[in-house]
Every structure is written in C-alpha cells, then in structure tokens.
C-alpha cells in the first residue's frame, strides 16, 4: 500500500525552512526556472551541455542578481530545484533510476555548501516529482506517483529527514496550494480509467481528501492556478466541448458556474496561465492573470482579467525564460530573462487598466461560452474555509 520507501542520512538533524515557487502551477516547471511564492528568490540550472550548475537569483532587491552554486561535479539535466525563503536551494537528484536524493545548497564565501537531507525510493513504475513551492516559506514537498496510489512526502522542513504526510488513492498530477499556510493542496486525481478530477488534500489531517472540481460527471477537470486572497481558480476542462480542453475560471466555494471565455481560446496557439495577481481580497474579477501563449511563430505574453472580455497581447522581453514570472500586488508583472548582455534580467510590465464592463450579449454563443451546467463543488461539500493550522 505504501508508495515509497525511505532512506535518511546522518545529517538529518539540521532542517530549516524551505519553499519554492512553479507556480506555476500546476506543474511544475517546463522552464526549469522556479520562483518562491513571496517572489524573493528563484533558481534554475545554468550552464550548457555537460557543465550544468545550480544558479540562485535574488529578486527582491533594487536589481536582480545571480549567485552560482556549483559543486565538484556538474548537475544532470534532470535535476529539479526549489528555491527557499531563506535563500537556500533544494536540489532533487535521481540516482540509479529509482532513488531520489535531496539536499540544500547555499553560498559559503567563495564555495558552495551542501546539506544532505536524505532520500526517497520510488520502486517499480512509480516516479517522484517536486511539488510547487509551499506558500508558508518553510516546507518543501514531493509526490511519489504510482498506478494506484500517490504519496506526498515532506522532503525539507521536517525533523527527521523525508516524512510521508499523505497517501491518496489514485494516480495524481498537478499540485496547487489553496491557502497561505501550506495546509491545503489541490491535486488532479484519476481513479482507474475514470475522468481526471481535482481534489483537495488536507496535509494536517492525515491527507484527508475532499472533492474540489466536479464540473460534469464525465469531464476531465484540472486546476492550474489558485489565488488564496481572492479565491480565483484557473481551470482546464473539456466540460464545454467534450474531448477538447478549454481554459476557464471560477471562484473557490462559489455557487456561480465556471466560465470559459472565448477570448482565452486561440486558433493554432496554446494558452497556459502562469501567474495571478495577489492581494485582490474578495475581488477575483479584478485579478490580473498572465498567460504564456505558444504558437508556430514563437511565445509571447497574454494579460487578462476575468472582468474583461478581451485578452491583451504583449511581446516578451528577449531571452524570456518562457512561462516564468510573477505579479506584484500593485499590478506589475515581472518576467525573468537571460541574454548575452544581461545574464540575470527582470522586465517589469504594467498591466493595462481595467476596462469598463461590457454588457453580456444575449445570444446562443454566450450560453456556449459560459455553460451554466458547469460549476465547482460548493464550499459546504468541500470544506476549505478553515485555513488555520490545527491546534
């Protein structure tokens, strides 16, 4: 029944805060560039070919700067990174095809220090992935995915090395934090050959699972991003057009339907949200959303608010680490980039002003755009209001 076996090292005693940041969301991290939830640090694999090394970026100063963290041997291309709120970088390495080791890297004068945390073994067909950075700035988590069971591990921030904190029936993917404490984790779960549905996992109640997204009985519903301040949810589902995923939005716990705006649906281009503006308490319609748009001509940035009926298109800076970025509460979108002349750059984009509301046209097309059959599970069926840690 247990999905993973555990190994520890002699250096397990010293364990402090960690955190990381894909938020991207869901998933993690096609760019290989991960930002902490508070926007203070980021990390990526730098270098080229057989000379890869960990590089930490500091983002909250007057200007961004990068600190290389090389070790005695180069990193493998599959090495995964999470920057922590204290400036250390969690490193996950795959060893012998089954064993996943974890350590913390930090600068020590001209050298790089490394604190080994332990290892988790993923046997058979199982595989282990890092989850997006925990919002509390203290802990880091990984997910061991098997065909029938998914196990969530606390890999940094615990007292005795990696600790199993939850076991969830089914095969899970994604990973989105629903609160500011790091207690409630949303996972996209599939049971057998059934549809994918997002569930909420309470890490302080032994991994208790409650439904979160069930738009229709047979639809595949995935949560991409969530903003705890406003409750805004970014969702991908085939509910409005079975067999074809659409990008939509809803509000955590709301009885209003999930909406699938036509402006987020582009011909011959993939649209993926990667950052939501924080600080818009109880105002989900006003949140700025940054989207990565990928087409044959390249990648650029879309900027959209749920209250708008149009999406703005913005050219990304040269060398943009596509799919990476963060919003400030004041509405500035910050995009990291790397060029020969700027090896550690951060471009600030002001969000366009919020447009005046446009009356909803009364047409059949409007019903298709926002099908009223689609709704998130009401809050009373997925109790997520108590975001305080258990006493």
What's the helix count?
Answer: 1
Structural class by sheet pairing and helices: mainly beta
Assembly form of the protein? single chain
Provide the helix percentage. Answer: under 10%
Read across the widest sheet, the strand sequence of neighbours is 1-9-8-7-6
The gross shape turns out to be globular
Sequence stretches where pLDDT stays below 50 over 5 or more residues: 1-30, 358-375, 377-391
- How many β-strands, per DSSP? 27
Overall mean pLDDT stands at 83
Could you tell me the radius of gyration in angstroms? Answer: 21 Å
Order of helices and strands: EEEEEEEEEEEEEEEEEEEEEEEEEEEH
State the major sheet. Answer: 5 strands, antiparallel
Amino- and carboxy-terminal Cα gap: 29 Å
Question: How much of the residues is beta strand, in percent?
Answer: 35-45%
What does this entry look like structurally?
- By secondary structure, this protein is an all-beta fold.
- It has one helix and 27 strands.
- It has one helix at 364-369, and strands spanning 5-7, 33-35, 41-48, 51-58, 65-69, 80-83, 89-95, 99-108, 111-121, 127-130, 140-145, 149-156, 163-169, 171-177, 184-190, 196-202, 208-211, 221-226, 232-237, 246-251, 269-276, 289-295, 298-304, 312-314, 326-327, 332-337, 345-350.
- The chain has a five-stranded antiparallel beta sheet, with no helix packed on it. A four-stranded antiparallel beta sheet has the order 2-3-4-5, with no helix packed on it. Strands 10-11-12-13 form a four-stranded antiparallel beta sheet, with no helix packed on it.
- A hairpin with a 5-residue loop joins strand 18 (221-226) and strand 19.
- The chain is globular and about 55 Å long.
